[in-house]
Amino acid sequence: MSTGLGTYAYFWRWHASAPAPMSLEAMLEETAALGLDRFQICDYPALENWDAARLDAVRATADGLGVTLELGTRGITTVHLARYLHLAQRLEAGLVRSMLNAGEHRPGPEEAVRLLGEAVPAYESAGVTLALETYEQVPVATLVAVVEAVGSPSLGICLDPANCVAALELPMDTVRRTAPYVKNLHVKDFHFTRQDGWVGFNLVGCPLGEGLLPHAEMVSLVDPDARGISRIVEHWLPWQGDSATTTALEQRWTEHAITYLRSTP
Q1: Strand, helix or coil at 249?
Q2: Is the distance from CB of 152 to CB of 120 less than 8 angstroms?
């Protein structure tokens, strides 16, 4: 099993609002200390401004710890994906997760197929996989249709069933539609809680195995171990009122998730 963490497992510790933001190197060191072999640097804006020496230092740290890197970004413009391919090659990352939409650029299916058709051949040549994430802004059927239309073995889907619930797409429907194309798994559990006064709900994270994520069924359909698909642990952890309480709970959720994954198929 190739299991790792991502920056979203450390959201409250590295985010700019943290009292002492955690460095990327510290995240890598903790990942290795937890016995994991992969880390996804996902939606981490500082990375795009680092020079070659800084990128090489991160790669050297990861190499020394036995941690394989993956990247994550948003958007599919040709220039942007070329930039992330360069970063992936510099960091020896074999996978880049992205999303169709980024900011005000929200391409329709035809434009998405055209843009990806321009960008993906370079990924194929470099041996890097591009995985488009399932999320509520793009119907799952549309995302699958785009991947099928491009038709490249280097293009697939980053499966995160939690995101699509906000668009009223059931988790197992998302899993079934995307399973043949999955290249990466984001693993986080979630549930609905009533708002104060019982007016409406909140869709928030919870410890893995205690919510609505159909983890066993997802693994059975996707078969990540046989297909060499990494599982990246993330969290949707609500703010707990202060930094110390929130970050301590974040750490406990991470440790719990690792134990859960090791004890289940």
Answers
A1: helix
A2: yes
Pick from 44, 4, 129, 66: nearest CA to 55: 44
Does this model's pTM top 0.85? My answer is: yes
Please name each of the domains of the chain with its CATH number.
3-263 (3.20.20.150)
Measured over the CA atoms of residue 203, residue 182, residue 149 and residue 123, the dihedral's sign is positive
Tell me the two tokens of residue 51: 């020079």
pLDDT attached to residue 245: 95
Cβ burial, residue 174 (10 Å; 0-12/13-18/19+): buried
Q: What is the pLDDT of residue 14?
A: 86
**DSSP reduced 3-state for 115:** helix
Q: Give the CA diameter of the chain.
A: 56
What are the start-end ranges of the H helices in the chain?
Answer: 11-14, 24-33, 52-65, 78-91, 109-126, 140-150, 161-164, 171-178, 215-222, 224-227, 243-263
Pairing of strands 201-206, 189-194: antiparallel
Mean pLDDT per block of 10 residues along the chain (265 residues) reads 93 82 95 97 94 97 98 97 98 98 94 98 98 97 98 98 94 98 98 86 95 96 96 96 94 97 87
Beta bridge partners, 126, equal none
